[in-house]
Input
Amino acid sequence: MINPFPVLPEFEYIRPKTAEEAIQFLQSHPEQARPFLGGTDCLVALRNRRISPNFLVDLKYLDGFQDVIFHPHDGLTIAAAVSMNEMIASEPVKMTYPLIAAAAREVGGYQLRSRATLIGNICNASPCGDTIAPCLVYGGMLAALGPDGKRCIALKDFFLGPGKTILQPNEIVCSIRFPLPPAGSRGKYLSIGRNALGDLAIAAVTILAFPDASQPSGYCFRIALTAVAPTVIFAEEAQRLLSQTPLNEKTLEQAALLAGQCCSPIDDIRASAHYRREMVRVLTGRALQQVWNALQKDVQQEGGNG
Amino acid sequence: MPELDQISQGIGENVARVDVQEKASGAALFTDDIQFGSNLLHARIKRSPLPHAIIQSIDISQAERLPGVKAVVTGADFAGRIGLYLKDRHIFARDRVRFIGEPVAGVAAISEEIAEKALDLIRVEYEPLQPIFHPLDAIKPDAPLIHPDLGSYEVVNFIFPEPGTNISNHFKIRKGDVERAWAQCTAVVEREYYIPHIQHVPIETHVAVAQVSHLGKITLWSSSQSPFAQRDLIAKTLGFSPSDVRVISPYVGGGFGCKAGVTMEALPIVIAMKAKGFPVKLRLTREEEFYTNFVRQALVIRLKMGCDQAGNLLALENTMYWDGGASTEYGVNITRAGGYSSTGPYDVPNVKTDSYCVYTNNIIGGPYRGFGMSELHTGIEQCVDELADALGMDKVEFRLRNVVQGGDTLATGMTMHPTGIKECIQKVAAAVDWGKTSKSTEPYLKRGKGIAIMWKAPAMPPNPGSSATIKLNEDGTLLLGIGGQEIGQGTFTVMAQLAAATLGVPVKAVRIAKPVDTDYSPYEWQTVASRLTWSMGNAVLAAAQDARRQILAIVAEAWKEDVDDLDILDGVVISRKTEKEIKLKDFAVYGIPKENFEGWIGGPIFGRGKFMPTYVTGLDKETGQGKRAVVHYTTGAQAFEIEVDIRTGKLHVLRAAAAFDVGKAINPELVRAQMEGGLIQGLSSALFEQMIFKEGTMQNPNFVDYRIATTVDLPDEMMTFIVEVPQDDGPFGARGVGEHPMVPTVAGIANAIQDALGIRMQGPPFTAEKILLTLQSQEEKKG
Output
């Protein structure tokens, strides 16, 4: 990058009235049109000439794209254009899906979060996208709309690689839906950056755990790792160990070790692969300890109440 | 003249900043805010993609034909070289390019988009040359020469280039006999440190607008610390008379040294010379700010220090290789400052110093808050810690034993003036409970304490001048004219306080004439070197005294009294003898009528003052010896208590203490703000900041990957202490403190890390990853 561009390249701004109109426009302008939400990734990519669409199709003003809907039985739906700040402030997100709020707070700074969106963060498909892991452990389902109508995509099946997803160029994501977290679930989000706030994650660990009588250990753990593989991944071996082995300090430590081993981080300007792997182990260990403490406390309290 | 205590009203008080309302409300004017209408042209710069190459050809014909393009300029248009101390830089590269980002051609067009398109149409052919990216490679005998014509460059008489090499300045000190001294030392420590490039990162990137009239007069609006130096340098380089160049500088959105001298400001001027009558604006992107402007140059410093059994320093050998970059026009004087201050604030009888300014094909090094002192002290203060350790002596005690005191003969032969550095050391040590250990809450959190001290002199030519004017208004307020810049440090407020106290008016009656305008403002060399409070302050004091004399003479004549019986209090002239009084606003411009309509006394009052140090001497080229190397030294100390997470390497500062001897704090709150701000900037460079280069290309020219400290990275507690040992020629005894508070920070943190973990890091920044890796490699060694 020798000569940075001071200005954005020319493009046409399209503001469709309905989602169908947006799809139609995307379909009739293959490889020229790009959907657009808060723009916090898109405008940077445009300025750096990493993308060069002729049209930006703004989805922010579509009906229903601003909604956060919570049903006590069905769970939560966050529409595509809800800003991260709105989402962080919403009661059901804070109370029932706190990991999403915790991770969203790590995205950029406050001003940026007034524009950035959860769906945008997901569709950008960066391996270090802060909010992706919490959405994975809560079992997020994307509602996508295309020329052939709606389809549901489990978030865990959505990502193909850095910046790559199974979404078709003529499809848009309208919302993400989360079932209610399993009863008694406890979670923790821990991330590490170069300085204390606003940095891209060097590594992050998201854990959701809950009592599950069908598992030998009596618990089920979901552990998602950020910025240490081409996509956000589940630490499957660690999850398996924790569900199948009686839980104690040693199991937790071993699970942390497995998490460190299962990732495939790279060396880059932000951190070495070695350091990332170490941080996965340390952060997983700490998050597991805290989650385990909370789960044990729940058991004691139940016992006390009974 | 009145007694000092009578006129010192408001001195030492925390007067609110005079610019606070303007800045908080957004009303303050910055260069980019100035509107030029539809005639404005936008400039963009074609830059070298290669670190070192011969320019074989430049074809601008297509760019010139692009509709909307008004001017295309290359190095062929201007032969002269520019430079503050050493004229070694072309405004646009001519025969060769020497760093990635060097300007090769410039375009002015009716929009930035068109200017940008025109750049793509400019064809440049290069013949690559072997680049050099490290100063130790550049000094090798067979290294290619980056400036083969160094011997023919114009240079000031206190800078010593070595033609035929890549060394553009070699500063030496030879004092005593170090070779003989080593034999007498009980402990000797030899160390090498590397301090990487960092950037100033002002919030406001460089911006300048130039207009060249058909009559050949140049006007430049720029965000600048140095309107007068820019006028002089640009005029001389382009063959103009300085008075035909006018520089107008509104508020500056952060400088830290990067807006001193001339960096990009000459570019829009030479483009505007080909588009006469049009204002031409050049506004740097953040990336350009990072890799095309002045940066803080990197340093390799080799130290050998020794002391006797009692802990008395006996000898110091200091060899510094400064990575000056592709041009060292300003940087040469940083290496000189590093040289004459090379002992740090210590009394050392035997000194051998070699400070080399070395050309490389890296980005150009320039002034940065501290002017070489942060880099120097990062080495000295770690080495001193290690020497104390080698002797088994407490590090505070070791410093107290060896620090420089008034009356000491410095390494340059200058006699040191009284200084409060011992008090500074004692204050910060006490603040962090030096000598006591505190316990962390978790076994994996390790605590440690570190101390570092510093000195710094204003680094300038021997004769930088200041001047000031005071004009009384009809309403009794006064308009204070100064040429120094408000770059966030609060100088407008301090100058208002000095003028108000000296004249006898409330601070709110002082207006600062702005923007600084070389046609209307009195001369000021540059807003650098922490020199304004002292130097410009003296000029303001003199101007206020001049106005005061005029006022009292008028009233004395009207009242037929002796001036010695008169005083000015709160904007009212009073007689201590007759108890008569008259408000300034009742006669400031129109004078006082004589009795019985017999005429008038007085007339508009206009005070003027100047200051220039006249006593700084040259230093011998071979020995660095001279009667007085500098005007004075500000000294200080910092101490830290840190906590490190040994599993992640994360470092957190629990307590930080800073104490500086400012002579006299004109505005204590502003002094404390400098102490805190400097400490934070120092902490940022200690933990996060580094320009990362790969074959000369910066890899992190953005805030995603060039991390700077934010509020949440600050110490839990910051304690500041003002020490006041008066400066004999400072206004009310004041000395500057703008740069000093970031000087000892890196070393202080490094020393605290050593105390906490028993490790010495290779060099800053001490990132979490580096700390963890250093710990792990140490474990392996033990393992």
